Amino acid sequence: MENEMKIFKDFLVSKSLKLTRPRKIILREVFQNHDHFTVDELFEQIREKHSNVSRATIYRTMPLLIDAGLLKQSLRCEAKDRYEHIYGHEKHLHFICDRCGKIIEIELKQLENILNDMAKEYDFKIREYNLGARGLCKECQKKTE
Amino acid sequence: MENEMKIFKDFLVSKSLKLTRPRKIILREVFQNHDHFTVDELFEQIREKHSNVSRATIYRTMPLLIDAGLLKQSLRCEAKDRYEHIYGHEKHLHFICDRCGKIIEIELKQLENILNDMAKEYDFKIREYNLGARGLCKECQKKTE
DNA sequence: TTAAATTTTGAGACTCATTTGCATAAAACT
DNA sequence: AGTTTTATGCAAATGAGTCTCAAAATTTAA
Fold it and tell me: Which end of chain A is more exposed for a tag (fewer CB within 10 A), N or C?
């Protein structure tokens, strides 16, 4: 936690930006949330704790956290962008169920190697990547029709 | 072409839906377009040929083509969903440049195997998947600042 | 430490892709 | 042909995300 705050602070300073109260709150809640959350969910999460921050500020802070390497836009579901924080660098694959919306996370180390090879070949500098598969989860496959 | 039409027709019939004129036009243009297109671009493409179809109908037809296995929602760029048709099954990876928006497509057979292994392990039935990486393309890396 | 300058915030207006309601049109059925 | 059903187009509605701008917080200058 302290660690993330320091990273964010340093990042902000390097851009001549300030670690303000709302930004601190957002960072804290982002790291308290271990799901794939939407801005709206984060907004609610913050509001429940009576430490109000406007939606606009959250929207404005997301790219800062992403640039600071602390947050990732992980997937899009039902027309909403979803985010997840990044501790270290556990990259993963998401299986998203078309029917119940469940998100299964899978670590995938092999992937990184393949990607890096490709990036080298095409001289592309990867900032972030996402691998998502959609289909039916175990449970939903059983429910016929 | 005839092939795709047949697949679409069969799909529609199986759902008690009809292969109408607008649906035929949309299918034809989807397969004439070899890019990652937006609904709006498809709309324009159709309009240029004087065979008008409303945006609403295009929006309504996209999920049908997807369900029929002929279309794929390939990526999202600048707040717009982009689609691409599916011939056979060339799945691929997209490198999307953050700066110039260029999309580099890469075939990735190895990936499929890994994914299938994982799907089996988690009992997940994959309908489609996407692997997208964002960063800087060769050219944009040179432009410093 | 007060005053001026700068940055950030919150609230709500705005944008724009996508969805929806409804009246009309086309198609299938009788 | 007339009736029922489904599809279409238009225009209005929706809703996530962005932007504006006045007020608030923070920094800098004196």
Answer: C
